[in-house]
Specification:
Blueprint lengths: L13 E3 L10 E4 H10 L7 E5 L5 E9 L3 E11 L7 E5 L6 H12 L3 E6 L10 H15 L6 E2 L3 E2 H7 L6 E4 L5 E2 H4 L5 E5 L7 H9 L3 E5 L7 H16 L4
Helix pairs in contact: 2-3, 2-7
Bound molecules: S-adenosyl-L-homocysteine.
Length: 246
């Protein structure tokens, strides 16, 4: 008995679009998406493409028309319902180029719902490029199969972040000077994880965070992790212990 090949094939491209997705609602893909499908993936009319927009789940579409700078796609049926990811916000100090892309990409793959850049005294970098960061979020979401897009929040200084946060949401702050073992501390509820910059928290910052309502200092073991490693490790521990890895 020859097994019928899975459809759509594993190689089917998966693209984020802003437009509404639904049966019979034509979708126009332009710019980078059009270049990727037509030139990089060398797709033809009739080929399948998976589309998601962060709101309507994932849809299997067929390429209807290919023009110089745009393609017209026709969604057929929904292949994945719109998911919800655990309500976890990763608050992190913007770290230097190359490493911050790694941090954002891993946070998206691991299932973080929101990304909150927080400027701290020892931050090497004190601003983020929202368009570039959004592009990294989209690319990671396309690759890992998420239908919920991670939300990028505007950067805040630590003081403003502590003032504006919802005090009812636990603030798990990864403290290189020690804290509760991560796995046992995380609870399955809306949460925020805070990771410091390359230079770590200053004593003043550490005191301010520890004094915040709902703050829980978290240890990620006896070694000093780079900020991007700490973010990845803390989010992974949360997802394993209190998130959606089951
Ligand atoms: N500059 C400091 C460490 C900063 S590491 C030093 O070199 O000693 C960057 C961030 O990663 C820290 O602020 C903390 O949030 C997190 N981190 C690193 N290692 C950790 C650990 N073992 N436990 C908890 N958090 C850690």
């Amino acid at each position: 008995m020859v097994a019928t090949p899975a459809w759509p094939p594993k190689s089917t491209p998966r693209l984020f679009v802003e437009q509404a997705l639904g049966e019979g609602i034509g979708v126009t893909v332009e710019g980078n998406g059009a270049h990727y499908l037509a030139k990089v993936m060398r797709k033809s009319v009739g080929d399948p493409v998976l589309l998601f927009n962060g709101r309507d789940g994932e849809w299997l579409a067929t390429i209807g028309e290919i023009h110089k700078k745009r393609l017209l796609l026709a969604p057929g049926h929904q292949t994945r319902p719109q998911e919800t990811v655990p309500d976890l916000t990763l608050a992190f100090a913007p770290i230097k180029k190359g490493r911050i892309e790694f941090l954002v990409e891993k946070a998206v793959e691991l299932g973080v719902a929101k990304l909150q850049p927080v400027i701290m005294q020892r931050s090497v970098v004190d601003k983020v490029n929202p368009d570039k960061m959004h592009a990294h979020i989209v690319e990671a979401a396309e690759q890992c199969g998420r239908t919920a897009l991670a939300e990028l929040l505007p950067p805040l200084k630590l003081g403003a972040f502590l003032d504006r946060r919802d005090a009812g949401v636990p603030l798990y702050f990864c403290d290189e000077e020690g804290g509760a073992p991560a796995l046992s501390a995380f609870e399955p509820a809306p949460s925020t994880i805070l990771v410091g910059p390359e230079g770590g928290f200053t004593d003043e910052e550490r005191a301010a965070v520890r004094a915040a309502p709902g703050a829980v200092a978290i240890s990620l073991g006896p070694r000093i992790l780079r900020a991007e490693t700490a973010a990845l490790a803390a989010v992974a521990a949360f997802m394993a212990g209190a998130g959606d890895w089951k």
